[in-house]
């Protein structure tokens, strides 16, 4: 509220008559209350940035039950080995008889291009869209967490339906050493 202060500024000395100076005073309590109410309202009603997470189902490691292991055709299986210095190597089939192991990079012209080509190739071989490409991702101890996240992003971008993160084996480490992406 605003109010006017009409009290006199001093005593009457001398013969001159002076007009009374009126000072104004504004009460800002209501405005401050309103500001704090608005701040509180917006703080409570805003949504903070939600963390982006990818759902990933990991299989159980049950080596006691051999019947739980699933046999897959070699022409549907692509193995991706994560090496050092953001380098990857991929091959089709098994490590005993890999079909053209290829050292590649991440990105549109690297592994993504290979994934899209192999998805089309596998669909052409099987003739069934439900029997698509199966990708086995095998990070080495030389790869970084960022490499794993990048390859999972590539799986999502390339629309690979079936993929798994699997432990790397000694023959695969030997293959990576031979090609110079594991030192």
Q: Could you give the order of the helices and strands?
A: EEHEEEHEHEH
CATH architecture of the domain at 75-179: 2-Layer Sandwich
User: How large, in whole angstroms, is the Cα Rg?
Assistant: 36 Å
The count of β-strands is 7
CATH fold-level name of the domain at 75-179: Nucleotidyltransferase, domain 5
Quick one: CATH class of the domain at 75-179?
A: Alpha Beta
- Main sheet, how many strands, which sense, barrel? 5 strands, mixed
Name the beta content range. 15-25%
How far apart, in Å, are the first and last alpha carbons? 78 Å
* Uncertain spans: none
Shape from CA axes? elongated
Q: What is the helix tally?
A: 4
Q: Trace the largest sheet across and list its strands.
A: 5-4-3-6-7
| Residue-averaged pLDDT | 80
Helix content: 25-40%
The helix/strand class is alpha/beta
Structural description of this entry:
Helix content is 31%, strand content 19%. It has a domain at 75-179: Nucleotidyltransferase, domain 5. The strands form 2 sheets. It has a 5-stranded mixed β-sheet with strand order 5-4-3-6-7, with helices on both faces. The chain has a two-stranded antiparallel sheet with strand order 1-2. β6 (134-139), α3 and β7 form a beta-alpha-beta unit. The protein has 4 helices and 7 strands; from the N terminus they run ββαβββαβαβα. It starts with a strand and ends with a helix. The longest helix has 17 residues, at 29-45. With 183 residues, it is an alpha/beta fold. It has helices at residues 29-45, 111-126, 145-158, 170-179, and strands at residues 2-5, 23-26, 77-82, 88-92, 99-104, 134-139, 162-165.
């Amino acid at each position: 509220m605003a109010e006017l202060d009409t009290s006199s500024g001093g005593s009457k000395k001398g013969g001159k008559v002076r007009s009374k100076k009126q000072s104004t005073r504004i009460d800002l309590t209501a405005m401050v209350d309103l500001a704090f109410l608005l701040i509180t309202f917006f703080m409570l009603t805003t949504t903070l940035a939600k963390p982006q997470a990818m759902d990933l189902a990991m299989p159980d490691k049950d080596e006691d039950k051999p019947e739980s292991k699933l046999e897959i055709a070699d022409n549907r299986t692509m193995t991706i080995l994560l090496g050092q210095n953001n380098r990857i190597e991929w091959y089709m089939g098994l490590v005993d008889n890999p079909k053209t192991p290829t050292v590649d990079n991440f990105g549109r012209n690297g592994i993504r291009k290979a994934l899209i080509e192999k998805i089309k190739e596998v669909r052409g071989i099987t003739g069934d869209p439900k029997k698509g490409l199966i990708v086995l991702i095998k990070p080495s101890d030389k790869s970084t967490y960022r490499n794993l996240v990048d390859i999972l992003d590539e799986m999502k971008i390339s629309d690979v339906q079936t993929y798994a993160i699997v432990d790397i084996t000694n023959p695969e480490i030997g293959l990576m050493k031979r090609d110079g992406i594991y030192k």
